[in-house]
Specification:
Radius of gyration: 18 Å
Number of strands: 10
Low-confidence stretches: 32-36
Largest sheet: 6 strands, mixed
Order of helices and strands: HEHEHHEHEHEHEHEHEHHEHHEH
Length: 319
């Protein structure tokens, strides 16, 4: 992804996507008990977007680049929830219908948000939903398919996060990014490596579906065992073959985080920073707190905050 395309995307999405803050997260007492005692943690708060997720950036850029003729039959996407909200948000602004196919385990908080925005939800078994991700189409449904990951316009929109990070913190040692399909990593990684090549790009997935970490270790994508969890916006059963050559050259390390550590990071964010993060949104902080992301200035991308309140309550009151 060229830097010029990302810079053009920033102009295109201005007024729809929010320029989110990058804040210093001071947790010296917690870090003292980890291997990363010298770490300075910064949080890129994409949970503060209008849809509480970074996905509005890529969705807006892709849809606005499409012609009116391409949008005439409405919009369509396959998403666990956050891209769905991005597409539904833009569809509402443009007066277009939006149909969203979601996996059966998608959290109710995200489904309710899609419906509030006027989107029509269609649930599919995970394998059928994943097939839509692979093929960029849904059998029997028409409309402009906005791919949640591999569309270059979506990637460029995601890359605007990288521009903002370097403007606010010119010398990060590492940027830690939750990994679902790779579109967020491709965008941010392209911007960061163009502006500061020495900064490490570190991906993080739940251990229950660490397909990219497995691919990086093996030298290419392969099917792995996938188990659904509350970390629904990251992890998969296989790294997308189409994204592998795009993302792999950008990534310096790929981490897999236990589900209980992701839950603990959700709790820490809520208790210590009053930040509500979904499971995927807390993965980067979990990696930093464990020391796996290394020392120095570490930016953690809090990718979203769309978590079911019942699950949040369970985590906050749990052990």
């Amino acid at each position: 992804m060229k830097l010029a395309e990302i810079e053009a995307a920033r102009e295109r999405i201005a007024g729809t996507a929010t320029r989110t803050p990058l804040i210093r997260f001071r947790l010296d007492d917690v870090l003292a008990s980890t291997a990363a005692g010298s770490t300075e943690i910064y949080l890129k708060l994409e949970n503060l977007q209008p849809i509480n997720s970074f996905k509005i950036r890529g969705a807006t850029n892709a849809i606005m680049l499409a012609s009116p003729a391409q949008r005439a039959e409405g919009l369509l996407t396959a998403s666990a929830g956050n891209m769905a909200q991005g597409v539904a948000w833009v569809a509402r602004e443009l007066g277009l219908p939006a149909t969203i196919v979601v996996p059966e385990h998608a959290p109710e908080a995200k489904l309710a948000a899609i419906r509030r925005l006027g989107g029509v939800v269609r649930k599919l078994p995970y394998d059928q939903w994943w097939d839509a991700i692979i093929t960029s189409r849904v059998a029997g449904m028409d409309g402009l398919f906005v791919h949640p990951v591999q569309d270059p316009a979506v990637i460029a929109g995601n890359g605007t996060i990288g521009l903002e990070i370097i403007e606010d913190l010119p010398d990060p040692d590492a940027v830690v990014i939750p990994f679902g399909g790779g579109g967020l990593t491709a965008g941010i990684g392209s911007a960061i490596k163009a502006l500061r090549p020495e900064t490490k790009i570190i991906t993080v997935e739940p251990e229950t579906g660490a397909a990219f970490a497995a691919a990086l270790a093996a030298g290419g994508p392969a099917d792995i065992e996938y188990r659904a969890s509350f970390v629904d916006g990251a992890g998969s059963r296989r790294a997308l073959d189409s994204m592998w050559p795009v993302v792999a050259p950008l990534v310096d390390a790929a981490l897999a985080i236990p589900i209980d550590e992701a839950a603990a990071a959700v709790r820490v964010l809520a208790e210590r920073a009053r930040v509500i993060a979904e499971g995927a949104g807390a993965l980067a902080l979990a990696a930093a707190l464990s020391g796996r992301a290394g020392g120095g200035k570490v930016v953690c991308v809090v990718s979203g905050g769309n978590i079911d309140l019942s699950k949040l309550a369970e985590i906050l009151t749990g052990p």
